[in-house]
Amino acid sequence: MSQAIRLSDRAAARVAGLLEEEGDSNLRLRVFVTGGGCSGFSYGFTFDDQVADDDAIITNAGVELLVDELSYQYLAGAVVDFREDLQGSRFLVENPNAESTCGCGNSFSIAS
Questions:
Q1: What is the mean pLDDT of residues 72-99?
Q2: Which of 7, 8, 61, 108 could cross-link to 98 by cystine, CB 3.0-4.6 Å?
Q3: For the whole model, what pTM was predicted?
């Protein structure tokens, strides 16, 4: 896999806190890309206790981020971060591959 995906310190701290609240040390944060959204592709986040054979595992401060092989190509070089601001609390992706993004930052397009 080409460029590394990073999990920011803020995101790792937030995931660690959520996992502590949940009480399940087997859970990992998964980021994925799906078709749809106002810009063509959408980011998704979920907690997962299963690791597939083709998953990339990104680790920061003992927290693991999973990315499936198909999504990785769209996320190469990206940073998964966590923000709290006027729009609320959310995980987000700072993606250098995105040609454009929607106003909320949840969907993006890639140059063809």
A1: 89
A2: 108
A3: 0.85
Residue 111 resides in a domain: no
DSSP states along 17-74: HHHHHHT-TT-EEEEEEEE-STTSEEEEEEEES---TT-EEEEETTEEEEE-HHHHHH
Q: Cα-flanking dihedrals φ and ψ of residue 75, to 5°?
A: -110, 0
CATH number of the domain residue 89 falls in:
2.60.300.12
Q: Is 75 exposed, middle or buried (0-12, 13-18, 19+ CB in 10 A)?
A: buried
pLDDT at residue 1, as a whole number = 45
The token duo for 27 is 């859970």
**Domain encompassing residue 11:** 6-106
